[in-house]
Write a structure and sequence with these properties.
One of its GO terms (molecular function) is RNA binding. By secondary structure, the protein is an alpha+beta fold. Helices cover 62% and strands 10% of the residues. Strands 4-5-3-6 form a four-stranded antiparallel sheet, with helices on one face. Strands 1-2 form a two-stranded antiparallel sheet.
Amino acid sequence: MERDVKRQEEEEDEEDVKGQEEEEEEDEEEDMKVQEEEDEEDEEDLMGPEEEEDDDEEDMTDKGVLGHENDDDDDEGSKTGGVEEEKKGGVRKRTPGIIYIGHIPPRLRPKHLRNMLTPYGEIGRIFLQPEDGVVKKKRRKAGSRGSNFTEGWVEFPDKRIAKRVASALHNTPMGNKKHHRFHSDLWSMKYLHRFHWTHLSERLVYEQTVLRQRLRTEVSQAKRETNFYIGNVDRSHSMDKRRRKEEAQGEQLVEKSWDFTQRQTEEEIQQKKRNQAKARFIQDKSQSTKSNQDKARLIQEKSKSNVSLLAKIFNSSRKQD
């Protein structure tokens, strides 16, 4: 069972890799077409490319999104989680910041996300959460090969730039131009305060462990069910063989029967209580009648003794007379 599961997982991974490669090729072709169309539109526009770039930079500075990075960053500071840069003759430590993206459009890849966010500031690490395997299998049955993503995290070396980007791009279109493939989708961003990349790594490790544990329990449950089914089949075969043997010998097979005690219903419990009360009433009544009869018998015996005593008294008085 474990080998079959591993083989199935390897086949699914190979299909995912093939599907992703095909989707990447299609994405590159579409990007080339969109780029050619944008170049043609730019040539037709009255404004030159240099003026457009200046206008874009002015718009970004008005929004407070465009961040200025220093290329001469210290390697040691980046390893410890902070990047140092010079500012007005002093040294300022830049703390990394992470943005959470709650909506990832279909066919959006990490390279697309990096290209779309790079103009706003320096980008660090990017992680996109793949969709669930059940949803993926349903899409495969429908004819779609590639895999989509549900949510993502983007790391900026400077948390101030991350805050600006999250506040400026939230609920805005992803594409600046109408012909952009993700123009109809909106950014869903949120800056995560006091959240580090190690927290995300720990969460991913925990999810992987939970997934492995669940897979292990499912495999063990399947093994138990299979063994139980095989045992029942073997037992039924042995019973059939024994029955045929006894029938051939002319003996009658006595089948075992099992009796199971069932819990009484509420009506049966109430009926039992009524019967007990009735029997108790009859018993008390019979005891009371018996005691009354005993009392009457005692009174009668006493009256008989009194009659004999009176008879003796009166008879003696008559004899004296």
